[in-house]
Amino acid sequence: PILEAHVAASPTRFRGIRHTTTWDPSRAIRTSAPYPRGGVMLEAAFRQGVQCLGAYRLVFDAWRCHPQSPELTTLAAACPEVSIVIDHMGRAMGKDGPDQPAVHALVELAKRDNCWIKVTGAERISFPPYDEAIPIAKKLMAAAPDRVLWGTDFPHPNATHEADEAELVDLVPKFAPDAAAQKKLLVDNPARLYGF
Q1: Cβ distance 147 to 189 under 8 Å?
Q2: Which residue in 99, 113, 153, 178 is the catalytic one?
Q3: Which tens digit of pLDDT belongs to each residue from 115-133?
Q4: What are the residues facing 19 on neighbouring strands?
Q5: For residue 94, which of 70, 129, 67 has the smallest C-alpha distance?
Q6: What's this model's pTM, rounded to 2 decimal places?
Q7: Do residues 151 and 118 lie in contact, with contact meaning Cβ atoms separated by under 8 Å?
Q8: Residue-by-residue DSSP string for the chain
């Protein structure tokens, strides 16, 4: 009844559900999940909830930590009819570069037809001028050029520093150097995913 009510209240604007499942085995990593524990995305009730979204053509927006990639892979396989968006470049740390295990896991997820990746959150994985985020974004864009999205992530909750929106916008041509790639990233891909 809740999904039906949301769809009825906003049939042209309600496009999906974002759920924070962030968890990391390291106590040094701060998470904002309401129940920070591993394995949440493997639970039957959680999977059933995500599967319900498919009937309404709603997107599941997954905010998780990179150690949860195996969980998300299992969820994506169990819910092939649901488009799953992975936020913030999967929170792969910029300082670890594009060849780290977290990025390799994202590339594997990007091969799934129902997984999309937001090359957003440069301010979450790097510091100004965000140069460390550029090779990660480029690798993700190369892996799934038709399933990448971009945004500024304004208003930057839980940020480690004050992010300048202009600096984040200036990253777009660094992530996608040509006009065709920029159009996919900014226009075509989001329009296809969200049905604009």
Answers
A1: yes
A2: 153
A3: 999 999 999 899 999 999 9
A4: 62
A5: 129
A6: 0.91
A7: yes
A8: -HHHHHHHH-TTT--EEEEE----S-TTS----SS--TTGGGSHHHHHHHHHHHHTTPEEEEE--GGGHHHHHHHHHH-TTS-EEE-GGGG--GGG-TTSHHHHHHHHHHTSTTEEEE---HHHH--TT-TTHHHHHHHHHHH-TTSEE----TT-TT-SS---HHHHHTTHHHHS-SHHHHHIIIIIHHHHHHT-
Please, what sign has the CA dihedral across residues 21, 100, 89, 84? negative
Residue 71: Cβ-neighbour burial (10 angstroms; 0-12, 13-18, 19+): buried
Annotation marks residue 153 as catalytic: yes
- In this structure, are residues 62 and 86 in contact, taking their beta carbons and an 8 Å threshold? yes
**102-114 confidence digits (pLDDT tens):** 999 999 999 999 9
Please identify which residue in the block is written with the tokens 């319900």. Answer: 52
pLDDT at 35 over 70: no
Q: Cβ(104)–Cβ(70) under 8 Å?
A: no
